[in-house]
Design goal:
Layout lengths: L1 H21 L3 H37 L3 H26 L3 H34 L1
Helix pairs in contact: 1-2, 2-3, 3-4
Length: 129
């Protein structure tokens, strides 16, 4: 819990510093925001590594359903990367680019989930036919 408080304080202090620069040197504010975002993202990746180690335990229990877990991890990664990238673009004033990244992320999640949809359809057909 204290780590989350530290990250929250880091975010607030970084934003306050960026706001100070925004009036005189707006490009510095963007750089500060980008650096801050990368720092927090690196911290999130460390936490994500801990989650992946827990997924290894789940993988042992799933057996043949291991591919579903891989799809879940892929979808989580896609959403985090797209959200992070879109946030940086929005902060830099490129809202249209951010929206396109979000659309690409949604399409990527949809395509990543198609194998699971096909597996469900095959299971339904095996029960009917």
């Amino acid at each position: 819990m204290s780590e989350i408080v530290k990250i929250g304080i880091l975010g607030i202090v970084g934003v306050l510093i960026a706001v100070q620069f925004k009036a005189q040197k707006p490009e510095y504010a963007v750089y500060i925001g980008l650096a801050l975002g990368i720092l927090i993202f690196c911290y999130a990746i460390k936490k994500f590594e801990a989650v992946i180690s827990q997924f290894d335990l789940i993988r042992k229990y799933l057996g043949t359903g291991e591919s579903y877990l891989a799809v879940l991890l892929k979808v989580i990664g896609i959403t985090y990367i797209c959200e992070f990238s879109a946030g940086i673009c929005k902060d830099a004033g490129y809202g249209t680019v951010a929206e396109q990244i979000e659309v690409l992320g949604k399409l990527s999640v949809m395509f990543a989930g198609l194998p699971i949809l096909f597996a469900v359809i095959e299971q339904m057909q095996s029960f009917v036919g």
